[in-house]
Amino acid sequence: MVCGTIAHVSETTAPDTGTALDDADLARARDGDDAAFTRLVEPLRRELHAHCYRMLGSTHDADDALQDALLRAWRGLARFEGRSSLRSWLYTVATRTCLDSVERRGRRALPVDLSPASERTVMSDAPLTEVAWLGPYPDAGLAAGPAAPEARYEQREAVELAFVAALQHLPGNQRAVLLLFEVLGFSAAEIAETMKTSTTSVNSALARARKVLAKRVPPGTQQQSLRKIEDERLKEIVGEFTSAMERGDADALVALLTEDVTWSMPPLPHWYTGLDAVTDFLVKVPLGSCGSWRHITTSANGQPAVAGYLRAEDDGEHVGWAIDVLTLRDGRISEVTSFIGREHFVAFGLPTSLP
């Protein structure tokens, strides 16, 4: 690692737990009033964006997909008859838009998907630019609880890194079916209408998707783990992590980690697992050869996170380097995923540099 360097869209009848339809604004929007359309969709924009992220694994791709989906919805609004909720119809449009994107771009990955862990620190690690990497999600304002009574996953559980990473191993149709059913509470019949297929195909896709996720997603979610930790203790863990990084205190940092901890840094391809390998990496790279660090606490993927700023020279400013997403288990850090890149700071609304 070198530091510093519209088609027709039919309506479905899924449960509506969002804002009630404003009939006056709907009529105005059908007549071409874009301000009325904006008022209709704005309360739903955040959850639609999260849905696009779950489908695509990238905040940037989710931005593009949501913009495209709302444009499709605006152009096709005359065909929306109100037999279902506007929210349900917009999810149909957004899902089909994301499926188009999945077909074009394929899936996103983390380093652990590509190769075994490295036993020794790789000092010459360089970004692997030909890989489409999974990105972090700025989850501030994301609602807690399921989107519908029938849904299995809470909204925050459904953006956790392990869950979104596992989704990337599913074909687009299975990804969509699982999210519509397990996260949003659509019925199999409603999903079949959305996907233009049969309920038999939907149930088959759902069964296959569940089988894959059962192998790739830990039995306990991060939300369950975090609920076992008092808020003050969680703040202490994050504070101790950032303080140890800034002091260059390897012993204090290692004391926070589980024995089977993993550390990865997309877009760098090498990653480390186990306390010995991770300690060797920490001593040689972030605490050894990089420079000085400053941090801002944030939240990503429903998990605690810190934004790391690196200063390679004594007289320079600290420049945004990586968003470190922390996975916790039994009060310790079991995984650190450092998403390197200044573009992530922009998506999180964070400054790209600090004095």
Largest sheet at a glance?
Answer: 7 strands, mixed
Oligomer: single chain
Beta-strand percent range: 5-15%
Shape: globular
CATH architectural grouping of one domain: Roll
Category by helix and strand content = alpha+beta
Give a structural overview.
- With 355 residues, this protein is an alpha+beta fold.
- Among the domains are: 19-105, Rna Polymerase Sigma Factor, Chain: A (Orthogonal Bundle), CATH 1.10.1740; 222-354, Roll (Nuclear Transport Factor 2, Chain: A).
- The chain contains 13 helices and seven strands.
- Strands 1, 2, 3, 4, 5, 6 and 7 form a seven-stranded mixed β-sheet that branches.
- GO terms for molecular function: DNA binding; sigma factor activity.
- This is RNA polymerase ECF family sigma subunit.
- It comes from Herbihabitans rhizosphaerae.
- Pfam families: Sigma70_r2, Sigma70_r4_2, SnoaL_2.
List the defining traits of the structure above:
355 residues; alpha+beta; Rna Polymerase Sigma Factor, Chain: A; Nuclear Transport Factor 2, Chain: A; globular
Summary?
With about 350 residues, this protein is of the alpha+beta class. It has helices spanning about 25-30, 35-55, 60-75, 85-105, 160-165, 170-185, 190-195, 200-215, 220-225, 230-245, 250-255, 275-285, 340-345, and strands at about 255-265, 270-275, 290-300, 305-310, 320-330, 330-340, 355.
List the helices and strands and how they pair.
Layout: H1 23-30, H2 34-56, H3 59-75, H4 86-105, H5 161-167, H6 172-183, H7 188-195, H8 199-216, H9 222-227, H10 231-247, H11 250-254, E1 257-264, E2 271-273, H12 275-284, E3 292-300, E4 303-311, E5 318-329, E6 332-340, H13 342-347, E7 353-354
Parallel strand pairs: 1-6
Antiparallel strand pairs: 1-2, 3-4, 4-5, 5-6, 5-7
GO biological process, one term: DNA-templated transcription initiation
GO molecular function: DNA binding; sigma factor activity
Domain RNA polymerase sigma factor 70 region 4 type: 162-211
